[in-house]
Amino acid sequence: MSDLPEASDKPCPQCGRSLPTSAFHRNRRRADGLAFYCKTCAAARSEASRRKRGIEPQRKAAVPVTDGLKWCPDREQIKPVEDFPRTTNASGRHSYCKPCHNARGRETAQRFYGGTREYHLRRRYGVGEEEFQDLLAEQGGVCAICGGEDPQHLDHDHRTGWVRGILCFNCNGGLGQFKDSPESLARAITYLRGTTWQRVLIHPGVFQMCSPTRGRPPSPRS
């Protein structure tokens, strides 16, 4: 009989054993869909890394946690699973409840990026606050569309991800509602020009409200 591992086995470079695929965590980013190290070795490496960085090990719940509940190590409380953010790991929920998860996210953003705004700009648009301010200065400090003061929304092409300019809330939302379609925006302009009621001089000092497309005054209000 051959001593070769079965096709379903996977070697772990840490412990050198060939183990069933069930002994490895899932990792969709890898070609085989499995983590590099087996679960036991991955846990040991994570614990060693936490000790090296001076991070205290997570406190375990003093009593068994039943179905529908989950332990939050930061609060040291057992809470309903609905209080934990969803994720793609095996349990389907993050390790910390929503308030603790958010607090940890803010702390990480502050530690690595100097704040949540810098983190948001870098992660989503690939620029930082300094680049944002430079672009805003090039626009004269106003919205690139309406000219409103103090715009705060970085507009980008949703197909390419390229930054286009800085807009106010209304202009940024307006482009989104029109799905960045020049054709739809052009039709909207044509519609406004063709249906907006205008004052038309019919006699010296006498004006009438008319529609450019209909040529008649609006119906009187009741």
TrEMBL record:
Matching InterPro entries = Endonuclease_7, Endonuclease_7_sf, His-Me_finger_sf
* Matching Gene3D superfamilies: His-Me finger endonucleases
Pfam families, per this entry? Endonuclease_7 (PF02945)
Q: Which domain of life is it from?
A: Bacteria
- What is the protein named? Recombinase
Question: What is the species listed in this Swiss-Prot or TrEMBL entry?
Answer: Micromonospora terminaliae
Lineage summary: Bacteria, Bacillati, Actinomycetota, Actinomycetes, Micromonosporales
